[in-house]
Design a protein that fits this description.
This protein is an all-alpha fold. It is built from 6 helices and no strands.
């Protein structure tokens, strides 16, 4: 479903095809939309890096999206005080 949204599919289309609750589809679509925003901007600010981590993006995945090394993303994350927390 995630790839469907990355390729530009709508929540309405996804619901029609899958009958998955639209609430869940909106959640998935918002994550996909955020990924497209990161790719378009081609850089991470402290604000959008924090949002990416809240969405669950790993340092490795962000590095792959931006064509950078994972260590560069990790250092940027630490520079902005974004550290892993386990609850």
């Amino acid at each position: 479903m995630y790839d469907f949204f990355i390729r530009g599919g709508s929540v309405h289309e996804a619901h029609t095809l899958s009958h998955i609750d639209p609430w869940f589809l909106h959640q998935i679509a918002s994550i996909a939309s955020f990924e497209k925003k990161i790719i378009k901007e081609k850089q991470l600010t402290g604000e959008n890096l924090r949002a990416a981590k809240k969405f669950g993006f790993s340092d490795a995945y962000l590095a792959r999206l931006l064509g950078k090394k994972e260590e560069v993303i990790r250092q940027l994350r630490l520079k902005h005080g974004i550290i892993p927390v386990v609850k």
